Amino acid sequence: MSILLENVRKSYRTPEGGVSDVIRLGRFELPKGAHRVITGRSGSGKTTLLNIIGGIVTPDEGRVSIEGTDISALSEAARDRFRARTIGYVFQTFNLVQGYTALENVMLGMLFAGRVDRARAEAMLDRVGLKDRVHYLPTELSVGQQQRVSIARALGNKPLLILADEPTGNLDPATGDTIISLLKEVCAEGGETLLIVTHQPPVMAAFSDVVDLGKLT
Amino acid sequence: MNLFTIVRKNLKQRALSSTLTALSIALGVGVTIAILALKEQGQAGFNQGAFGYDLVVGAKGSKLQLVLNTIYHIDQSTGNVPWSLYEKLKTDRRVVFAAPMAVGDYYENHRLIGASDRLLIDFEVQPGQKFELAQGRLFTYDEAAMRHIMTAPPDHHHEGEEGVFEAVAGARAASDTGLTLNSQFVAQHGGMGGDEHHEKWTVVGILKPTGTPADRAIYINLDSFFHIAGHTKEAEVRGKISTIALKMRRNAAESLEWELNNGTEAMAVRPAAVVAELFQMISKIDVLLLAVAILVVIVAGVSILVSIYNSMADRKRSIAIMRALGARRATIFAIIVLESTTLCLLGGILGGVIGHVAIAVAGNALHASAGVAVSPWILSTGEPLVFAGLIVLGALVGLVPAWKAYQTDIADGLNPTA
């Protein structure tokens, strides 16, 4: 999946009543199947960029095109549907729904895309090494295992794009390395485009395509 | 997995408040359903009980008391009417048949009704349906002997005279008391604890169930009633009977009723009209009870609103996660409305069970006291409306928390410090 952002600007109103630009991009392009890391200092807008690409946040200006679809021109409901079907999210805090087992968390992602497939959900958990943990609740899993569930959930709908926001931010270095390796592997296997935002050097070191957001704006 | 899976999990996560609010709904719904069914079936049962009696003639007094006493075998008799009135009515061209009755004695709380055999032969229990014997035969009734007793001089006493003491038991009376064919029993004056008479009746027949108060009665030949020691001694009883049930020719009841009510001898009432008046009085009370029950349901509905609304802060993150996974705002809205509606319906189903158990208990008591059959297996016409109302209530109370959920901002909700 190719991503193209043109003249995108996103600003927030400050508590003092002023306006502050968080994102101001001339052109940002990511070819289909690429694995790229976006880095930058805290508050540089990395997460906002990811949310704009994921259709969670709409830019104030500019065009966000994903595989030729201008998602910034879509209605919110259409963007939600587009996100459900084509984008997998991996979060720093995993964001598993409490009270739902690993399997149910994966199927929950499938539900909103309108294609619940229990066998695939089980296969995804198997792929991330949690075959014997499918019926465990998040509270019964280690943080590393929770992030694995999150990756399985992101892959559940056969997405074309995986967006990972600080995926190792809450993990110890060893577990972080394992998770990054896993992400790279599964995306290489499926041909998914992978975009990671992080400020962690080990993650940057694991990829050849690393871009500093500060230099893009 | 589907939206109901999410609803079920949401309810499970708030198990205590879900259970308590569902119980509140159940209580209100149970009472509502019970009131509706008891009123509807009770009224139908009372009306059915009154069927066949075009006019009931008794001593002047309370119309309701006369009807309750004659047809439903509850309350005291209003007094007595002269036998001669029966003789007169029997030959009135407007009357199809007249059935004299005398009451005052009981066997194990089941009323003995001294009656002519015409009552059991000609009386229609339901349209086109007359009394039928399950076992045995009808009692032997001697109208000539009866006339002799009624018209004898005051100083002539009949106790000790040769008499036939036979009884035909209603179905419920037989099953309650254990009376079978050829059983013998003695009567108590005025009910349980009253003085026992010496005379023994023999059960010669048992009636098939009719679903009316008649099932609770034990019918004895009218002449035997006046062979009971003491029953012809008292001046107020001598030459008199308790009531006369009349089957009238078409459109003739009104004129005879008017005639009798303008005389001094007796009072005539149309039972159907009296029952209608009774239920009109009762309806004021049941409307009040119904209003209280509906209020309970509404308050429980509001508690569902509050309970779900208060849980929104805790759910903000899971809603944001679902939104990030692609759930549309409308989907989140629908989940919350489904949740409140499901809670209302679960309470309603439980309330339905409670209501029908209450109908069974109250129906049994009503059948035991007035012989009116009320079945817990019959849905009242209002019951589907109760459930339709619950769905509407559930959806309405879900709107406010659903709107709050609808407005959840994904980025804000995903930030754990938010």
Give a brief rundown of this model.
The complex is a heterodimer of chains A (217) and B (418). Chain A is α/β, with parallel strands linked by helices and 217 residues long.
Which terms summarize this structure?
heterodimer, A: alpha/beta, Rossmann fold, four-stranded antiparallel β-sheet, globular, B: 418 residues, 2 domains, six-stranded mixed beta barrel, two-stranded antiparallel sheet, 13 helices
Number of H- or I-type helical stretches of chain B: 13
Main sheet properties of chain A: 5 strands, parallel
Distance between the terminal alpha carbons of chain A, to the nearest Å?
23 Å
List segments of chain A where confidence is low: pLDDT < 50 over at least 5 consecutive residues.
none
Structural category of chain B: alpha+beta
Give helix % range of chain B: 40-55%
The coarse silhouette of chain A is: globular
Return the average pLDDT of chain A rounded to an integer: 89
Number of beta-strand segments of chain B = 14
Structural class of chain A: alpha/beta
Strand content of chain B: 15-25%
Could you explain how this protein is built, in words?
The complex is a heterodimer of chains A (217) and B (418). With 217 residues, chain A is of the alpha/beta class. Chain A has one domain: P-loop containing nucleotide triphosphate hydrolases (Rossmann fold). Chain A contains eight helices and nine strands. Chain A has helices at residues 46-53, 76-86, 102-113, 118-127, 143-155, 173-190, 201-205, 213-216; strands at residues 3-13, 19-30, 35-39, 61-66, 69-70, 87-90, 161-165, 193-197, 210-212. In chain A, the strands form two sheets. Chain A has a five-stranded parallel beta sheet, sandwiched between helices. A four-stranded antiparallel beta sheet of chain A has the order 2-1-4-5. In chain A, helix 2 (76-86) packs across helix 3 (102-113). Chain A is globular. Chain B starts with a helix and ends with a helix. The mean pLDDT of chain B is 86. Chain B has 13 helices and 14 strands. In chain B, the strands form three sheets. In chain B, strands 3-4-11-8-10-9 form a six-stranded mixed barrel. Chain B has a two-stranded antiparallel ribbon with strand order 2-12. Chain B has a two-stranded antiparallel sheet with strand order 5-6. Chain B is of the alpha+beta class and 418 residues long. Chain B is elongated, with a radius of gyration of 31 Å. Chain B has two domains: 3-46 and 284-414, no CATH class; 55-269, no CATH class. The interface between A and B is medium-sized, with 31 and 25 residues.
